[in-house]
Write a structure and sequence with these properties.
Elements (H helix, E strand, L loop, with lengths): L3 E2 L2 H6 L18 E5 L5 E5 L4 E7 L9 E5 L4 E14 L6 E13 L2 E6 L4 E11 L2 E9 L6 E4 L6 E4 L2 E2 L1 E11 L2 E18 L1 H5 L5 E17 L1
Parallel strand pairs: 1-14
Antiparallel strand pairs: 2-3, 4-6, 4-16, 5-6, 5-16, 6-7, 7-8, 7-9, 8-11, 9-10, 10-13, 11-12, 12-15, 14-15, 15-16
Length: about 230
């Protein structure tokens, strides 16, 4: 499914737009910026290679980005931080990006939960630039056969399973200079995500039990290169 278009207007609505992209500067080795590829493709490029693409929660200055792992009309799961790993890059890249996520200190409403990605990763393909900071892309969750993202409270009273799937989503980026380094401020999200809920705790949280397709997510992150 194609990503819905998300431009700087939505970034502004989430307070990212309050940050003004800094002029291009002499980037330290290994720092990522988005650049223009051929035929409207977006290109991720660093000032030196090889480089490891990594990311964490967006929190420049006083602004703290949203990390909504799971949300329905009745329940919301948020995390304090996320560690992203996009693997090692040896050259500028276009076309596809695979991100492994490790969510930290998460709660479903006020209940502490554990998040097990269980080999699952986020895959973005056919990424194309529409205009500055605005992209369209295909997005999906991919896992090894028989695996899925698992969210559960320590007592096991509510267990959520998010299987491999394609989903509806949005994406936007801004090139920014943070702490003297060029980075990418990114905001991604999805809706219509499928999941299964089991346990009386899920009923108490208002999620219910069964299989549904009404979950959404939103992640505001900083992507940078680690040489």
């Amino acid at each position: 499914m194609k990503f819905a278009r998300l431009g700087l207007a939505l970034l502004a609505a989430t307070a990212i737009g309050a940050l003004v992209a800094a002029p291009a500067s002499a980037a330290p080795a290994g720092v990522y910026r988005t650049g223009g590829g051929e035929a409207g493709e977006v290109m991720l490029e660093a000032s030196a290679y090889p480089v490891q693409l990594i990311g964490e929660r967006l929190q420049p200055g006083p602004f703290l980005g949203d990390l909504v792992l799971f949300e329905t009309e009745d329940a919301k799961g948020v995390c304090e931080d996320v560690e992203l790993d996009g693997g090692e890059r040896s050259e500028p890249s276009t076309g596809g990006y695979l991100l492994q996520a490790n969510y930290l200190e998460c709660e479903l409403d006020t209940v502490s939960v554990n998040v097990d990605m269980d080999t699952c990763m986020y895959l973005y393909t056919n990424v194309e630039l529409v205009k500055g900071g605005e992209y369209v892309s295909d997005a999906s969750i991919i896992c090894k056969e028989g695996h899925a993202i698992k969210i559960a409270d320590p007592g096991g009273s509510c267990n959520l399973t998010i299987p491999p799937q394609a989903f509806n989503g949005v994406v936007g980026t801004i090139n920014y200079t943070l702490g003297g380094q060029d980075v990418i401020l990114g905001s991604t999200g999805g809706s219509g995500m499928k999941y299964t809920a089991k346990g009386f705790g899920c009923v108490l949280l208002g999620i219910g039990e069964g299989t549904f397709e009404n979950a959404s997510s939103k992640l505001d992150t900083v992507l940078r290169g680690d040489a």
